Amino acid sequence: MARWALRRDRAGRVLVIANQKPGVLDLYAITRDEADRAAWTVDGAGNRLEGAAAINRVLAELGGFWSSLAAAYRLPPVAAIEEALYRWFAPRRSRFHRLGVRPECDEPGSECG
């Protein structure tokens, strides 16, 4: 997701940081268990979102079509379905490497510790 978002963020609105990068979890007050469980967003005011909510926040920041897609998350039934799908996917994400889903720290040149 990180590289996907960066490729589409032409305006530079999203800062993507691998949670394995030294010091990043302490900086954003996220525990290792939380980081292993879900994707997170933290805005400038320190508001934190996880899971499908975080993914939709990134989509909204990308603008255009992606922002329209993220708007559906505001509907409670859609949010419930997305959260359920995210809870299913998150613990299995390493199995999706064949589809190009790889941890950021597995990429050459990553700054992970």
Descriptive tags:
single chain; 113 residues; 44% helix
Structural features, described:
By secondary structure, the chain is mainly alpha-helical. It has one domain (2-104). 44% of the residues lie in helices and 5% in strands. A two-stranded antiparallel ribbon has the order 1-2. Strand 1 and strand 2 (48-50) form a beta hairpin. The longest helix has 14 residues, at 76-89. The protein is globular, with a radius of gyration of 14 Å.
Topology:
Blueprint: H1 2-8, H2 24-27, H3 32-37, E1 40-42, E2 48-50, H4 52-62, H5 64-71, H6 76-89
Give a short overview.
The protein is mainly alpha-helical and 113 residues long.
How many strands in all? 2
Overall average pLDDT? 87
Sheet of most strands: 2 strands, antiparallel
Contiguous runs where pLDDT drops below 50 for at least 5 residues:
none
Distance between the termini: 20 Å
- C-alpha geometry: globular
Structural classification: mainly alpha
Q: Which strand order spans the largest sheet, edge to edge or round the barrel?
A: 1-2
Q: Which bin fits the share of residues in helices? A: 40-55%
Query: What is the total number of structural domains?
Result: 1
What's the helix-strand series? HHHEEHHH
* Share in β-strands: 5-15%
Radius of gyration, taken over Cα atoms and rounded to an integer in Å: 14 Å
Helix segment tally? 6
